[in-house]
Amino acid sequence: MIQSTPVLNGPFAYNGDTLSPEDVKAIQKLFTSDEVANDSLIFYTEDSGEPGLLEKKSDQMRFVTVEDSWYDPIRNMQS
Predict the structure, then answer these.
(1) pLDDT higher for 16 or 27?
(2) Which of 41, 39, 38, 40 is nearest to 60 (CA)?
(3) Does position 65 have pLDDT exceeding 60, yes or no?
């Protein structure tokens, strides 16, 4: 039997030492916007024929902001 464990997508990260809090908020606002979620060059659909970055499998798919602790399940996995 072959078994696999889903792996969370890697984050888009920023350097907090070089960006102001205002710039961080602006970037987060843009990345999580409807404009980005509906951009076919970023989120393509299977039938679009577009060479996007990520396949949009539902209308709910978009970038979200998370805390570092969101990755704890991966860190805590046992082999």
Answers:
(1) 27
(2) 38
(3) yes
Mean pLDDT along residues 58-71: 89
- Using alpha carbons, select from 59, 57, 52 the residue that is nearest to residue 37: 59
C-alpha separations of 36 from 4, 11, 39, 58, 72 in Å:
31, 16, 5, 14, 27
* Cβ neighbour number for residue 56 with a 10 Å cutoff: 21
Please list, residue by residue across 14-53, b when 16 or more beta carbons sit within 10 angstroms of its beta carbon and e when fewer do: eeeeeeeeeeeeeeeeebeeeeebeeeebbbeeeeeeeee
> Is pLDDT above 70 for 79?
no
- Say how far apart CA 36 and CA 33 lie, in whole Å: 5
Model pTM score: 0.71
